[in-house]
Specification:
Blueprint lengths: L15 H19 L54 H4 L8 E6 L4 E4 L4 E4 L2 E4 L3 E9 L3 E4 L5 E12 L5 E3 L5 E5 L4 E6 L6 E3 L2 E3 L2 E5 L3 E5 L2 E6 L3 E5 L2 E4 L3 E6 L4 E3 L2 E13 L4 E3 L9 E13 L4 E3 L2 E4 L3 E6 L17 E3 L2 E13 L4 E3 L3 E12 L4 E3 L3 E12 L2 E2 L62 E2 L13 H4 L3 H17 L5 E3 L3 E12 L4 E3 L3 E12 L4 E3 L3 E12 L4 E3 L3 E13 L4 E3 L9 E12 L4 E3 L3 E3 L3 E5 L9 E3 L3 E3 L3 E6 L9 E6 L9 E6 L4 E6 L6 E5 L8 E5 L2 E2 L8 E2 L4 E2 L2 E3 L2 E4 L40
Parallel strand pairs: 1-5, 4-6, 5-7, 6-8, 7-9, 7-10, 8-13, 9-14, 10-15, 13-16, 14-17, 15-18, 16-19, 17-20, 18-20, 19-21, 20-22, 21-23, 22-24, 22-25, 23-26, 24-27, 25-27, 26-28, 27-29, 28-30, 29-31, 30-34, 31-35, 34-36, 35-37, 36-38, 37-39, 38-40, 39-41, 40-42, 41-43, 42-44, 43-45, 43-46, ...
Antiparallel strand pairs: 1-2, 3-4, 11-12, 32-33, 49-53, 50-53, 50-59, 51-52, 51-54, 52-56, 54-58, 55-57
């Protein structure tokens, strides 16, 4: 099913996934707490005769059942919320009192003690054909251990070293699960040869790898296991692969760890170096399978392709993960570059805890479905997008740090330069930084007037640039160790050249955004620190901010959405950007703190290329804008009824502190907007207006009531000539604008304060009352309207008097 609004796959999974999995995890922990694995009770016969049913098994399940049944959950459809695997007693038990047989490996001299009928030795190939518990030790330099039959088998590895010249070192084709227990303090190694290839054993298609299991495979214990896949892969399991504990090191020419139905970690310490993908689950035809479930433990992955890859779901509850993708993997058949992402999922990604550090040649996290971040720490450095979801993206907790390094194409990163100002070219002659405006206004092109014939006419809206910017991925990602890249290194020169071309093409189509959402974005908690070369936060659908703390530095836009954008809570600080917060639909701010400290273009902007609604509404919250373009720009109506809006606008050109194409309405809240020598627009009524200030950068602009109390004061980082202050229905005679002087109150980090008093300074003549959004000024003249508040700002009449008695020409 597709999302009718955005044309992207709609998630098949319900919100209940998280609750179901947390329940399953809690139950598995409860089961673990009740089990005492040391000295697991064994009823065994070690006489060396056929003991029949006397195998050393201690489990409460019939092995035809999945382990999930221990907590009353089966692997049903993920979309129903009944997903994930758990552990049972067999998975957790890693120490045994007795064994069905003890096998001591030695080239040409392997010895078997115990049930000899269950173990056969032929040409350095040891075959275990009956269920039971077996202890293995010793070394085979050219041999193989093969597990067959229809029963569950437990292998206790106590110092095993197996190198296979043909096929995997350990092959499990038995019809039920295999459990590998790593003896305490033991070091175990499994290695295949570089010449190994896929083969058929006992009717099973056995992959080219060092450790293969046809059915379920569990690895536990307190020893270590090193798996070297010299040919293709390291560990391959065609069913559920559970890593319970132990130290596991995998090196592979291609994929490191593969569990077809799932890979689940419950506490192991895993280290993977892979020429292609690190850890992956590959079942794509069943939505209940093909997932990664990382509950606890740690994993360090260095991969030429994706570090973590799954078809349906990546679920991270806890643990520590260091993921590095160099992006050097190549498809040896096509010569094309493989994906090089930190986490790559064909379905959903859910992060409910843990600590992730990701360094990726492409996206840090990428999923086709939805992404939820509820808790944990995520630190991403990526050449392309930091976190990307084609579906909805939700951040409700956790701490995220994202740095993107992709280079935006020069053709796409030019600063906004409007085509005309009312029909002509943009005026030249910016005000020098830090100097008060004086003298004549910037010279207009011949025959042109501001605003298309009306001084103070409608402002210009930035074009829809930067939404389809192309990026070139950074090329400084570190390569993985050479040993794991041998197969790829041996590829032909032509294949390498094709891969390089493919990577270049992909990079040209890529973006380097911090957070990129193809559906609806919701950020209700947690914190995000983003330093991006492209948009820091982008949503193709709606965007809702209600509680997240955002720290943004961007070479492009800070926050952008194609749908409605709402801010009702949280703290958003944008240190640098082109445009600060943009919606190509409507924008509503009702709460929270929004600080745009340095925007080279507009601070707040609504607008698009079609005929939709672009209304901007402010009913609450604290907003500070320092912008070189329009401070606030609506390509529709603008309305303010509450909150605090502080604007340090442009110092020249055709931009102003406030700009709207429709009606501007002010009915309440604190509005203080400053600008200099640019276009000036202001609400139809309820504002105090001054156009004759002479304040230098760094000086205070203070609004003082008739009792001498400072109602609002703002230290401007730029020269100021124009001031707009909202007074509602109050009498303008009760207010005074003062520039400079000494303020005895306390300023916040934006240079804003309320209360106290100001001594010294210069009082500025101001006008108050009514006008129009197209520059209507009250009686007494002033920029943008006809004398005596003529209708519609005197449009079509005589231009108003310019400061210093200079007119706009014509």
């Amino acid at each position: 099913m597709t999302n009718s609004h955005h044309g992207v796959p709609e998630s098949k999974r319900s919100v209940r996934i998280m609750q179901k999995k947390i329940f399953a995890w809690a139950m598995s922990m409860a089961v673990a707490a009740m089990i005492t694995c040391t000295g697991c009770a064994q009823n065994t016969n070690s006489s060396g005769t056929d003991s029949g049913s006397s195998t050393a098994q201690t489990t409460t399940l019939d092995d035809n059942d999945t382990a999930e049944a221990a907590v009353g959950q089966s692997l049903s459809a993920i979309q129903s919320g009944e997903a994930g695997v758990t552990t049972d007693e067999d998975d957790l038990c890693d120490n045994y009192d007795a064994f069905d047989a003890e096998i001591t490996l030695e080239d040409g001299n392997t010895k078997v003690k115990g049930n000899t009928k269950a173990v056969s030795v032929k040409d350095n190939c040891i075959t275990i054909s009956a269920g039971g518990t077996y202890r293995l030790s010793g070394k085979l330099t050219k041999g193989q251990v093969l597990v067959t039959g229809s029963e569950k088998v437990k292998l206790y590895l106590d110092g095993v070293e197996i190198t296979s010249p043909s096929g995997p070192a350990l092959v499990c084709t038995n019809e039920k699960r295999t459990i590998l227990s790593l003896a305490k303090g033991s070091q175990n190694t499994l290695t295949d040869s570089a010449d190994n290839a896929d083969t058929e054993i006992n009717g099973c298609n056995v992959s080219a790898c060092a450790l293969f299991a046809q059915d379920k495979l569990t690895i536990n214990g307190s020893g270590s296991l090193t798996v070297t896949g010299s040919s293709v892969d390291g560990i391959v399991c065609k069913d559920d692969l559970k890593l319970v504990n132990g130290t596991i090191t995998v090196e592979a020419a291609q994929d490191g760890v593969k569990g077809k139905d799932c890979v689940a970690m419950f506490g192991a310490d895993l280290n993977v170096t892979a020429g292609n993908d690190g850890i992956k689950s590959t079942e794509s035809n069943d939505d209940t399978k093909g997932f990664l479930q990382l509950e606890q433990g740690s994993a360090t992955v260095q991969a030429g392709g994706d570090c973590l890859q799954a078809e349906t779901l990546v679920w991270i509850a806890d643990g520590t993960y260091h993921l590095t993708s160099s992006g050097t993997a190549v498809n040896t058949e096509t010569g094309e570059a493989n994906s090089g992402k930190g986490i790559h999922c064909g379905g959903d990604v859910e992060i409910a805890g843990g600590k992730l550090t990701i360094d990726a040649a492409e996206d840090g996290v990428n999923c086709t479905g939805s992404l939820e971040l509820q808790a944990g720490e995520v630190d991403v450095t990526s050449a392309e997008d930091g976190i990307q979801a084609d579906g909805d993206l939700t951040v409700s907790g956790g701490a995220v740090t994202i740095t993107t390094t992709g280079t935006v194409a020069a053709s796409a990163q030019d600063d906004f330069q409007p085509n005309n100002f009312g029909g002509g070219n943009p005026p030249s002659g910016d005000m020098p930084s830090g100097e008060a405006p004086s003298g004549n206004p910037p010279e207009l092109p011949d025959g042109e007037t501001f605003g298309g014939g009306n001084f103070g006419g409608n402002g210009n809206t930035p074009p829809d640039n930067a939404d389809n910017r192309q990026n070139v991925a950074a090329s400084d990602a570190s390569a993985i160790p050479a040993a794991a890249m041998q197969t790829i290194a041996d590829s032909s020169t032509d294949a390498g050249a094709s891969a390089a071309a493919a990577m270049t093409t992909a990079a040209e189509d890529a973006t380097s955004k911090g957070i990129k959402c193809g559906g609806n974005l919701t950020m209700s908690g947690g914190s995000c620190t983003i330093d991006s070369t492209d948009h820091a936060v982008h949503a193709a659908g709606t965007a809702v901010f209600s509680g997240t703390t955002l720290e943004i530095t961007s070479d492009n836009k800070g926050i952008s959405s194609h749908g409605d954008l709402e801010i009702s809570g949280g703290d958003i600080t944008i240190h640098s950007c082109t445009e600060g917060v943009e919606s190509k639909a409507e924008m509503t701010i009702s709460g929270g703190n929004v600080r745009i400290l340095d925007a080279s273009d507009d601070g707040l902007n609504t607008g698009g290329s079609d005929s939709g609604s672009y209304a901007m509404t402010i009913t609450g919250g604290y907003i500070y804008v320092n912008a070189s373009g329009d401070g606030v720009d609506s390509n529709s109506t603008w309305e303010m009824s509450g909150g605090t809006l502080l604007v340090c606008g442009p110092t020249s050109g055709g931009d102003g502190s406030l700009d709207a194409d429709g009606n501007m309405t002010y009915t309440g809240g604190t509005l203080l907007a400053l600008s200099s020598k640019g276009m000036m627009e202001y609400p139809e009524s309820g504002c105090l207006i001054a156009t004759n200030c002479n304040a230098a950068a760094g000086e205070q602009i203070s609004i003082v009531d008739k009792n001498g109390t400072v109602l609002a004061t703002l230290q401007s980082p730029k020269a100021v000539s124009d001031v707009i202050y909202g007074i509602g229905d109050s009498d303008s005679a009760d207010y005074t604008i003062v520039t400079g002087g000494t303020y005895d109150g306390t300023l916040n980090e934006d240079g804003y304060g309320e209360g106290g008093s100001v001594s010294g300074g210069t009082e500025v003549t101001a006008n108050g009352g009514t006008g129009s959004m197209n520059g209507g000024a009250p009686a007494g003249g002033g920029r943008g309207g006809a004398p005596n508040g003529a209708p519609n700002g005197g449009q079509g009449g005589t231009p108003p008097e310019m400061p210093n008695s200079n007119n706009s020409g014509s």
